[in-house]
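Worked example 2:
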Amino acid sequence: MELRQLRYVVSVAEHGNFRRAAQALGMTQPSLSRQVGAVERELGTRLFERTARGVVVTAAGAVYAGHARRVLDQVEAGATEARRAARGQAGSLRLGFVGEALIELLPSLLARFRSAHPGVVLECRELSTAQSGAALLAGEIDLAISRGAPAGEGAERLTAVPVAADHLIAVCHRGHPFAGQSAISPGQLRGQPLIAAPAADEPAATRVLASLIETGSGVTHARDVHTVIGLAACGMGVGLVPSSVRRLDRAETVMVEVDPPLRLPDLTMSFRVNDISPPLGAFLDVTRAHCPGTGQLLARLMPRKHQKRG
């Protein structure tokens, strides 16, 4: 049985007349009659009683036409979903991100993506830079936002593009001597008890801070910026955080600039070079529009199949 034959049966049942059904289908009446007759012979039962005024659907015909409609509806629904998936309007996207990306970048970017592509299931996981690079290479996530590009074995299989720049600031308790200063020098941080991310989690950022941490009088490790601020609020030391963290200031703490500025590794978006999934392409398109400074660079680095077609 072919789909076109199901359409023939449904059309005759709906029109109650071979001539009108043939016109609707764009075929001749004799051809339609032969096709329906072939279906009846295959089923071994009559679907329609032919009369001078048209046709009457038999009990068997009514049952068969009902099933045929459902099959055709399912086929059409499948075709619609397939087209939506090909346009990046369906499917799923797995995103790994460092917590600080939630301060400025991700809230508006994810809102924009979800508004434009509500049919895509977005799975988000907070991961350190080291974890997200490993997860991306292992195929556990499709996209990573990390502090600096993933490095090490397999990194050549990834495309990475910066999406936001940042520099170091310090956060301390309001009773700390730094709290009354508009800025401090890197030299003033040396010898202070510091609070920073573990080197294994954020290797690129740790390299920037190496001269401060190595000569310090101790480092308390915290895996996310909220914990850094919380520990600073407890008087545990001076937290080292990206400047975007100013949005998270709390009553017990003060944010202090470091001058001259120490630039941190960029927040970077990474994905597998050969990944051509439509949901990923859709997310990259939204990123290009949302992060204008990144758009041209991302356009050059994106796989050809992710380029927007005019």
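The radius of gyration is 31 Å. Residues 59-86 form the longest helix (28 residues).
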